[in-house]
Amino acid sequence: MNTALSGVIAIFALTLILALPLGRYIAKVFAGEKTWLDFLAPFERGIYRLCGINPREEMNWKQHLKALLTINLLWFVYAFFLLIFQGSLPLNPDWNAGQTPDLAFNTAISFLVNCNLQHYSGESGLTYLTQLFVVTFLQFVTAATGIAALVVVFRALKDKTTTRLGNFWDILVKANTRLLIPLAIVVAVVLVFNGTPASYEGRDTVVTLQGDTVDVSRGPAAGMIAIKQLGTNGGGWFGVNSSHPLENPNYLTNIVETVSILLIPVALIFAFGFYIRRRKLSHVIFGVMTLGFVLLCAVSIYAEMQGNPAIDRLGIAQTSGSMEGKEVRLGAAASAFWGIATTATSNGSVNAMHDSMTPLSGGAQMLDMMINALYGGVGVGLLNYFVFLIIAVFISGLMVGRTPEFLGHKVEAREIKIAALIALLHPFLILAGTALASWYQVHGYADSGNWLNNPGYHGFSEMLYEYSSAAANNGSGFEGLGDNNIFWNVSTGFVLILSRFLPIIGPVAIAGLLAQKKYIPESAGTLKTDTATFGLMTFAVILILAALSFFPALVLGPIAEYFSLY
Question: Binning pLDDT at 50, 70 and 90, where does residue 291 land?
């Protein structure tokens, strides 16, 4: 047990050691300062000329959003038709068929919104062509989209009064060339040297140690796996994701992949401080997020290391903790830590089956996604936190009897209305979707008779988890749920769209509106937002909003299941 916990601590420590210098580097890249990858500038200029882009043309926040939404619509159409017709296209050595329209609709949206919810099995549901030119492509550009939206907020909060917020296309390109692609190359090389396939050959027939003859899928998986982790995407090349021995061969690759999940989201917090020259504020934000993350990690790791009480009653020893649904080469502690890391960051990849986790772990993973602001996805995690921060500023200002201000700009009714709508949207989508699915199930309208493989509390948790995952742009699931049908493909598809783009539009709009206002210098009466006290206030706002919104649903699912075990 001590060795297992030491591995978890080492993974988190390594993440922090790498995140601080990476955050400084990210701030320099988007501030236009010199970096060691400046030799890529001619290549970037070639992209700009080819696409007719003037990277020096300044945009306001509305122009940024227009560009973001337009290019995403184009990517959706491109992905949808490739998925439908993939069976007739090249690079299909395993002769996989095209997707149905409802599945293609869900898959295209899912990867477009950086969620990667997979209602298909990776190696049999896609071809090499769509794995590379739809899935891998979208995993790069959608992660860069989140970063681009966040950098707009950086620019808005840095200057005293401005409408000049940089160029969306310039940020999008550099997010790929200066950050995502170089890091993905490093991670992919590590995976290849540890046994992850990177060829274009089809299935291979092997004989296992037990003497069984099985067909094993291969393909150019290493590069896709690298960006799925670094971009908080999470969609696996193989159906069982990073619990597959070719996708995550050993404990070393598990360390690399877990660090990759957390690295950029944490680094962006530090980049925020370096960029706007308020490092103390970024440290407070990091502290609030880390407090919530560590608390949920402690709950999950403890629950999995203690084992399952239902198995204890059978008199079966669980010396290694609860190993149901987990890989022996990784262990219970590393699996529990991954489960919290992947749901805290909107990553969604798995190295163990979340459906088999103990109820407390499953509940912690759902709460992670319901909060959706503890590190969060690449770029969008800090945007989600920004909404809570604005609400905390408003409440704190009212408590001390002053007009709320943030970084020298008054927070007024318009900004609070936007923040409140975004904060309420998340629980509405999750709870309304779960209620609809529950009604649909109870009245016997489920496709093919019944989509739940587990009754009672756990069955409810499966549906609650699915909508939590879709709304949080996460993509993981309780796989006891039969989700490849018209109801789930269409309903989660619309949840995916709304929960991706409205939470981007809201914070960018708030930051753009604040940037236009007259700058107010700090005075003795200014509410300081870079103190531990304000950090605790923000943590309380996050906790209260999440608890009040989701506690009843959690009681009906994982909490009720936990007490039923005793």
Answer: very high
